[in-house]
Amino acid sequence: MPDTALGITPPAAAADLASDAGTGPGLTGHDQVGDGMAVVRNPYSGEAIGSVCLTPAASVDDVMRRAREGRTEARGLSRAARAAVLDGAARLVEERAESFARLIVAEAGKTLVQARKETSRAVNTLRLSAAEARRNAGEVVPFDAYAGSEGRLGWFTREPLGVVAAVTPYNDPLNLVAHKLGPAIAGGNAVVLKPSLLTPLSALRLVDTLVEAGLPEEVVTVVNGGADLGAAVVSAPEVRMVSFTGGFRAGEAVARSAGLRKLAMDLGGNAPVVVLADADLDAAVEACVSGAFWAAGQNCIGTQRILVEREVYPAFRDAFVARTRRLRTGDPMDARTDVGPMISEGAAAAAEHTVASAIERGARLLCGHERQGGLYAPTVLEDVPDTSDLWREEVFAPVVVLRAVDSFEEAVERANEIDFSLHAGVFTGSLEKAMDAARLLEAGGVMINDSSDYRFDAMPFGGFKYGSMGREGVRFAYEEMTQPKVVCLNREPA
Description:
The protein has helices at residues 60-75, 79-95, 97-108, 112-135, 175-186, 201-212, 227-234, 248-258, 281-293, 313-325, 345-360, 389-392, 408-416, 431-440, 474-480; strands at 30-32, 37-41, 48-53, 138-141, 152-160, 163-167, 190-194, 220-222, 239-245, 262-266, 271-275, 303-309, 364-367, 371-372, 375-376, 379-382, 399-405, 420-421, 423-427, 445-448, 464-465, 482-490. It is an alpha/beta fold. The strands form six sheets. Strands 13-16-17-12-11-19-20 form a seven-stranded mixed β-sheet, with helices on both faces. A five-stranded parallel β-sheet has the order 8-7-6-9-10, with helices on both faces. Helix 2 (79-95) packs across helix 6 (201-212), helix 4 (112-135) runs parallel beside helix 5 (175-186) and helix 5 packs across helix 15. Mean pLDDT is 92; it is low at 3-29.
């Protein structure tokens, strides 16, 4: 995930984040106009499409005062009322799907096809959240199953935490916001939402839609700002949980600021996909091209490293490069476009620099590596050195690395050598190898005969290894955002 979107960075790092897809010069997609305003710009055309009011960090007490009011309002909503709001919002988003999709295109640069899919997913996320509000109320505890407790009975309920701080990035400006707000509202919480300053408009429209569907206005408070605001929000005593999606450096800063409160972190990835010799190569090529270049590669589960058994490597490489060359890069509002712009020209320039550095160190360019403003052509390389940033770090760009391996065992070892992981994929015709890969690959999700870039909004979603904290996916986020309360009745008091 990018640090760009989050506005929460270590103070000492704020000036050098240009090398980390951060908020350094040239990487922002907005600019301030006068005091207290930020203009949101179209990543493709550069035109201003809207503006938002910036929230001063010094006003965090006012923000939390409203959040406390929202907490009271949220607690007063029955489960039926919460579910009705979420179902109503889902219906409204579905009715206005094309308008939502075009807003995503305008502020995030996703292609129209991709934005329509994101809007559809957001509808599903809201409906899943409504179902969770109705379903996940707690369980009976079998006290009488234990010697000494035969005279007791009871249950536990799932109670709201209170105030949840939610921080979201730019790459899925609608559905990732729905993934924070939906479960939080289902659980009876108030939310302080800090969307990306690069793409705040979809978030604001979703909040307006929830209010239109009956949510009390105070339940969700939207704040817009940078690092100082983010630190003030996540460290406020009223906040019981921080739900954060973004980059590792920003995540570390959030953890330092948050202190003793619950954290859920959806951080970055560098997704591997293993292609074995017995795989359906045509299907693997098609899925991996989509997995690598969807949303211009700005995708935390996007395919970045493809490990192919040597005997089929030449055939896979040639077919993959040929398919990549057919992708059309350009205006994201044109339905024929496959790859739109990156979030900013600075982000595209940073990707170009990373690829150029790898080539200087011996990587071989197979196609792409052409930039025009914020457009960066889908880029494929091989022979990338193990020490290169392109191999070891999340590139978050339309760039993929191919590598031949001599065995399944080597592929797994190579896939696992990165210190952080979200998803992995494996293509094979062998059920035995598929099950071995599912067991051995160190990832939060293993997609079999699919690229790493598959996510269903009801499944648990999160990272393995370094930085892994909690899970998203509606049911799992709902459970993170609620707490059990046990009620025990002694029928035979002393």
